[in-house]
Amino acid sequence: MSFNPPQKIVLMAGNGGVYKSKLSAFQLLLRGFMAGAYIAIGGALCTVCATGFSSGAAKLVGGAVFPVGLIAIVLTGAELFTGDCMLVPMAALMKKVSWKGVLRVWGWVYLGNIIGSVFYAYLMSVGPFVTGGAGGALAVNAFGMNAVNIAAAKTLTYKAAGAAGLWSMFWKAIGCNYLVNIAILLALCADNVAGKFLGIWFPIMAFVSSGFEHCVANMYFIPTGMMLINWHPAVVDKIGGLLALNGGISMSDMWLWNLLPVTLGNIAGGFLFVACFYFYAFRKELPKE
Hints:
Elements: H1 6-21, H2 25-50, H3 55-65, H4 68-76, H5 81-93, H6 99-126, E1 130-132, E2 138-140, H7 142-153, H8 156-161, H9 163-189, H10 193-210, H11 215-231, H12 234-239, H13 241-246, H14 251-282
Antiparallel strand pairs: 1-2
């Protein structure tokens, strides 16, 4: 089985960032939508398969199935914000792309990821996470209850901890995108589908099982819980705890107590801990183009 050496991987990552910077806003938005939906597919599968397991086993099962999202993204050419936190800055470090170009890619892809993730959250909230009952009404089933619990855990537990919760979340996000971008580099390392599959699977399994935070995944997890709560308010009292204490999950809970700090942590994890490290480690050994 052939593979690419580290020096070539770094060059390929930078050239991948150049390619992305040349895409139109529409293409970035469209491919971002696809990637958001693909990550949401992994998140939904994670929710369903982990339902009923104890905490540690649930994380392992979720980690085993979640990688389907990134595998689909890499193999089909979709645009994921967390991957672009490493690839486009790598091109900028090589002086092939401006930093303004980096921000442009990030902005359009982030928006596309949100739209794709929320679309799939709606699909799951009106589909597999509810079940028909007496009188023709839909009720939240066990999978949906798990989805609500996940959304609460990703917002209200951090909110309850205050500043310490924000700091914990930020570092969990760094750990997440450290592993996500290692997965992308391993995918570049391989020259065949099987190698790319395995290279992506192990780091993503590690990040999910470790309990790290991924902003695009959370663009699916949290809106799913919010939709189920808004359309089926009885789940709040049924679950109780922080959910009942806060009266549900608000938009400010989603953004302040998850997406904003997690996004910043993901940027730090991909840019500082992967792009900068590998660029400065191998910049003098890059192959000639």
